[in-house]
Amino acid sequence: MSLESSRRRLSDPAAMRAFAHPVRLALHELLMRAGAMTAADAAREVGISQALASYHLRQLAKYGFVEQAEARDERERPWKATETVQEWDDDAAGPEQAAARSLLEQVIAERALSRLAEWQQHRGDEPEEWRGVGGVGNLYLYATPEEVKVLGAAVAELLGPLMARVDDPSTRPDGARPVLVTQLVVPLPPTDSGD
């Protein structure tokens, strides 16, 4: 399966909980960034044992997040990610789906904050053109739920061409490197003035 424009809407609570594991998220991200690789190679990159990497890759495969890739020889068993985007919503979710979604969102947010802290520690060592690119922006909006959905769709459309490069390294311009974009949209409670 090609990763290009590959999206998956998660609704199965078991799949969401399975994905909401820091090692599995790290392995999935690695396969998206580096392409197909064996459990041994992935283990070295992530800093875990080969047995642990194999276990977590099998769990990811069980829920369809990764699959076996074409091997160069019979001894090799590489894995590859099956999609670039996982989405979820709870429009009709029950309590089990809502709890799984909350867990997954929390683990993803914690991972993003960890990656931000790593970036901050070595930002000064980066080439000048990259130093100002990473970081956090914060803004407040007044919007309706429909306007927030339209904003999300517009952002997804802007990111589409860049995300297509995940699957096809030949489309990446010189100097391109992996960039983590984490989107947090948090509806705030209205103020006493009725906002």
Summarize the structure in words.
It is a single chain. The protein has helices at residues 13-19, 22-34, 39-46, 50-62, 95-122, 128-131, 145-164, and strands at 7-10, 66-68, 79-81, 85-88. The chain is mainly α. The strands form two sheets. A two-stranded parallel sheet has the order 1-4. It has a two-stranded antiparallel ribbon with strand order 2-3. Helix 1 (13-19) packs parallel to helix 5 (95-122). It starts with 6 loop residues before the first strand and ends in a 31-residue tail after the last helix.
Radius of gyration: 19 Å
Question: Multimeric state of these chains?
Answer: single chain
Helix content: 40-55%
Mean pLDDT score: 87
Termini separation (Å)?
47 Å
Secondary-structure element pattern, one letter each: EHHHHEEEHHH
Tell me, what's the shape? globular
What structural category characterises the helix and strand content?
A: mainly alpha
Q: In total, how many beta strands?
A: 4
Beta-strand percent range: 5-15%
> Could you list the spans in which at least 5 consecutive residues all have pLDDT below 50?
1-5
Main sheet? 2 strands, parallel
Alpha plus pi helix count: 7
In which order are the strands of the major sheet placed? 1-4
